[in-house]
Amino acid sequence: MKTLKKVILPVTASALLLGACGNSATDSKEDTIISSKAGDVKVEDVMNKIGDEQIANSSFSILLNKLLADKYKDEVNTKDIDKEVEKEQKQYGGKDQFESMLKQQKMSLGDYKEQKKLQAYQKELLNDKVDISDKEIKEDTKKGSHILIKVKENKDDKEGLSDKDAKAKAEKIQKQVEKDPDKFDEIAKKESMDKSSAKKDGSLGYVIKGQMEDKFEKALFKLKEGSISDVVKTDYGYHIIKADKQDDFDKEKGKLKSQLIQSKVQKEPKLLTDAYKELLDEYKVDYKDRDIKKAIEDSILDPEKIKQQQQQQQQQQMMQQSGAGMSTGQ
């Protein structure tokens, strides 16, 4: 059993901005950062300018990283994360281009690595706190493939077909694969207009409930392993869907569990805030500033606030990625 450690949350502006320690919250706010003939700039002035919520977010992020790194240091291999980031850099065209992309998001390479590590630690926390059985994993996941015949979005769309032609082509393909299911992969690679999955013989891998458009998802989850659907129409066009064999389920189970936990937490943010609260209690976290404590409790530890933030993020994603891909952005 791990030894409980008392952690002092450095929530005063002097601790955050200057790295000072040993001052009380009241005294530290009176500290002068810059003096001039026109007047002094005090810590309290900076705190008021930045705002309690922003300071609370930064403080909590630093604290959470410390707590999770201590609790899960044996479960998370940070060297693997560094290698993963190096791989991402190569895929993006090199370190310079990758850092340029991060800069546009107001993030340094170091920040990005820390974010990845925090995500890995948080994943371990949620795996500990959110219970999902093998039965739930089997019920809420399905391995599938599809062939998509796109419908033109407008007259200038060169990729899709007219609704009439797309439907006719999909129906023709459906009859072919229903007659000879072994040809599904070959036909998917040749005919599917979903380029990403076509490269993989139409494979979508494991689909999590809530990940796909409703009509598609319902059709897939109704299918028995190895069977093929009738033509299914969605906003993207016409699909022929196949339920694939799940012979690698045991190998993929851990990854699927993590994805389901993320999905569950998005629907029930209280699972996350409760996990945070238990962690804070375990490490006997002591807040030194009442205003920052209140800001943390009213935002980061408030499940309703998290729901609102998720909705805002989803709206932004929908605006940025309108019409792109089949995923609903979960």
TrEMBL record:
InterPro entries linked: PPIase_dom_sf, PPIase_PpiC, PrsA_foldase, Trigger_fact/SurA_dom_sf
Pfam families assigned to the protein according to its UniProt record, in alphabetical order: Rotamase
Bias (Low complexity) ranges: 308-321
Record bears the keyword Isomerase: yes
Keyword Signal: yes
Signal peptide limits: 1-25
Catalysis: reaction(s): [protein]-peptidylproline (omega=180) = [protein]-peptidylproline (omega=0)
Molecular-function GO terms, alphabetical: peptidyl-prolyl cis-trans isomerase activity
Top-rank taxon: Bacteria
Renumbered residue ranges of the record's region Disordered: 156-200, 298-330
Known EC number: 5.2.1.8
Biased composition (Basic and acidic residues): 298-307
Keywords linked to the UniProt accession: Isomerase, Rotamase, Signal
Residue ranges of every copy of the PpiC domain listed in the record: 139-245
PANTHER family: FOLDASE PROTEIN PRSA, PEPTIDYLPROLYL ISOMERASE
Listed name of the protein: peptidylprolyl isomerase
